[in-house]
Amino acid sequence: MTRVFNFSAGPAALPEPVLQQAAAEMSDWRGSGMSVMEMSHRGKEFMSILAETKALLIELLNIPANYKVLFMQGGALGQNAILPMNLLRGRNSADYVHTGEWSKKSIEEAGKYCRVRVAATAEASRFTHVPPQGSWDIDPHAAYVHICSNETIGGVEYHWTPDTGDVPLVADMSSNILSKPVDVSRYGLIYAGAQKNIGPAGLTLVIVREDLLGSALPITPQVFDYQHLAANDSMINTPPTYAIYIAGLVFQWIKDQGGLEGMARLNQAKAGLLYDTLDASGFYTSPVAREDRSRMNVPFRLPDPALDAEFLKGAEARGMVQLKGHRVVGGMRASIYNAVPMAAVQALVAYMKEFEAKHG
Amino acid sequence: MTRVFNFSAGPAALPEPVLQQAAAEMSDWRGSGMSVMEMSHRGKEFMSILAETKALLIELLNIPANYKVLFMQGGALGQNAILPMNLLRGRNSADYVHTGEWSKKSIEEAGKYCRVRVAATAEASRFTHVPPQGSWDIDPHAAYVHICSNETIGGVEYHWTPDTGDVPLVADMSSNILSKPVDVSRYGLIYAGAQKNIGPAGLTLVIVREDLLGSALPITPQVFDYQHLAANDSMINTPPTYAIYIAGLVFQWIKDQGGLEGMARLNQAKAGLLYDTLDASGFYTSPVAREDRSRMNVPFRLPDPALDAEFLKGAEARGMVQLKGHRVVGGMRASIYNAVPMAAVQALVAYMKEFEAKHG
């Protein structure tokens, strides 16, 4: 078996020990005689998995006691609708900060349920920076202020936490959750699709401050009513049990790596090596403002798009896959989430230098 | 490794060869160097898995060309809301047939989006039968007529296909899909949560006639808009990729067992053995009308509820789990979906006789 270096933007690489444990436990989870996939979600075995997974997440993110953790289905795109369904609290508008493709999707979807104000936008720089706090125009009556903490496509990341005063801050953290310590108490709500740093696609985490619950619009499907989910510990219906189990294994792996401080150090080292390589090169370029560059998704360009196909082909021949950039941005993109090892970035950097020497 | 006989109502037993193949392919799917969980949903590997899974389902159910197959998230309870969001087509009411707990949930949820008429109900028999077609009062202007083809909790199943004239018939088939041949052309829409006969929880199948698409309510989240999903082959966002992969393995296993005819024979034999045992006994009783008994979920009662705990304890000691009935019905329930082997039913029947001999 040869494992590739997988730079996919999501679903993305998982830690090898997690996959090995999942394989070993597939037909018989710890002497239960069942696969986790086969377990009644209300049986003692799965209830223990859910409780342990939740406890690990609370520990890793140091989630305060006045927050609820929900395990949901539907993905982050689904949450873009479910969020305003639940969080308007009788108000008729919400503020959004536009930093790229994912915040754009959030803005479009929210418009079905409320008036959407764009409090700040990076459009002028073609979404290559995060609008500085000073440029934000927050409506004090807004139900919340929404940000995308890491734009997976554009490769732009917040390295600071916005101050939105009394208006709750909401963050789509799908592509950088668990990559560094976060002060959860600064947020009203955090959501994240699982398929980057958490586990398999089909699971979405929501972490929400209790006082914001209880005002879902009447049209909210009951399985997407945060308050109803919180009251039933995410068990209104059958949750995505196997995805929750894998998430628990990933959380344990993160803990074993030194928790979020450990992940932050590793991610900084990986991203640093890649950006240093880009900056030292007269060949590759990064489109993103230096202070807002993502540690998770690194878009870069070759001097001539005509070289892209050859670059990708050579990478694949060396066991490096999914380096093609998103069509909106073009060029290349290396997604280097938690589970992408330093060895993958070292291999990529070595190949980039080799390719530059040949074509530079 | 000792596998138990798992009578869970869902998530439920999966075929052992499927689990073995999943374990073997966990870290490296067919030489790709990746787990299926790690694959970009838009990469060639996963695209081939999705296409193969869909083709197998179309083959097994003989789905006509004018139907769309959608792989969705959210579960059947989510579909109870998503269905009226999509299928009202400018009408303001829908008809529902009330046969137990699951149709009750469907009725309650639909009430958020339209007027709900109960076209027939089995309430008079405490939901132990399917109301005969002659008793149905269908509104010819209804957007659709909804049935639950198998009530998982009550153990009541349709062994006939209702004739609803020009009003599209919609069926929640979560707990009996793929257990026998079905004439899909008699239905406007079929939906089914995966965690009984399809695969892991977190995936929901929708099979919908094309002419019913395109009229979603403006409040429909884009990820739950059938037309939008159909136009994008279920890939608006990241689908639950690993659950789809396992579903594909299960579909192949069903095909290898002789397809739905093969499954129907096996299920008839399993259910027949269990019901014959109940009927021949003066000890155990089945609460369900003989002609409407489910081949998937078999509730039964001991003569005295005080014996229930001992029965369950003895079953567990013999490697048989999840036989406790749902609290709404009480007593016992053996769920004997496709993947529950004949050997499990034989072991259960032997134990039931042993227990009867001791306590009868």
TrEMBL record, chains A, B:
It is found in: Cytoplasm. The keyword Secreted does not apply. GO terms for molecular function: O-phospho-L-serine:2-oxoglutarate aminotransferase activity. The modification N6-(pyridoxal phosphate)lysine is found at K196. Pathway: Amino-acid biosynthesis; L-serine biosynthesis; L-serine from 3-phospho-D-glycerate: step 2/3; Cofactor biosynthesis; pyridoxine 5'-phosphate biosynthesis; pyridoxine 5'-phosphate from D-erythrose 4-phosphate: step 3/5. Pyridoxal 5'-phosphate binds at W102, T152, D172, Q195, N237, T238. Its cofactor is pyridoxal 5'-phosphate. Its EC number is 2.6.1.52. Binds 1 pyridoxal phosphate per subunit. It catalyses: 4-(phosphooxy)-L-threonine + 2-oxoglutarate = (R)-3-hydroxy-2-oxo-4-phosphooxybutanoate + L-glutamate; O-phospho-L-serine + 2-oxoglutarate = 3-phosphooxypyruvate + L-glutamate. Belongs to the class-V pyridoxal-phosphate-dependent aminotransferase family. SerC subfamily. Catalyzes the reversible conversion of 3-phosphohydroxypyruvate to phosphoserine and of 3-hydroxy-2-oxo-4-phosphonooxybutanoate to phosphohydroxythreonine. NCBIfam families: PRK05355.1 (NF003764), serC_1 (TIGR01364). This is Phosphoserine aminotransferase. It comes from Aquincola tertiaricarbonis.
